[in-house]
Write a structure and sequence with these properties.
Layout (H helix, E strand, L loop, with lengths): L3 H19 L8 H13 L3 E3 L7 E3 L25
Antiparallel strand pairs: 1-2
Length: 84
C-alpha cells in the first residue's frame, strides 16, 4: 500500500515532468527551463554553482573523504512534431 508521502512525491514528480514536457526548449536555448529547475533546486535548498546560462549545476555536499557521485541530465528538446 502506498503511503501519503509516496503519493505526494509521485504527484510532485509527475507535475514537474508534465511541465517540462509541455514547455520544451531546443539545445542551447533552455533559458526558461533553467529558471524553472533553479527555482526547484532553491525550494529544496540545494546549492547552485555559478555557471553561465543555460547551464545549471546543483551541488549536494557529501561527507568529506567519502566517494562522490555525479548525475548529469539533458534538458533540451528534440525538434520533432509528436503525433498523438
Amino acid at each position: 500500500m502506498r503511503t501519503v508521502v509516496d503519493k505526494e512525491l509521485a504527484d510532485w514528480a509527475v507535475a514537474h515532468r508534465r511541465y517540462l514536457h509541455e514547455n520544451p526548449e531546443l539545445s542551447g536555448q533552455e533559458y526558461e527551463t533553467c529558471v524553472y529547475i533553479r527555482r526547484c533546486l532553491e525550494e529544496l535548498q540545494i546549492e547552485i554553482l555559478d555557471y553561465p546560462a543555460p547551464n545549471l549545476v546543483g551541488f549536494l555536499r557529501g561527507t568529506e573523504g567519502q566517494k562522490t557521485i555525479a548525475l548529469r541530465a539533458d534538458i533540451d528538446a528534440l525538434p520533432i512534431v509528436e503525433e498523438g
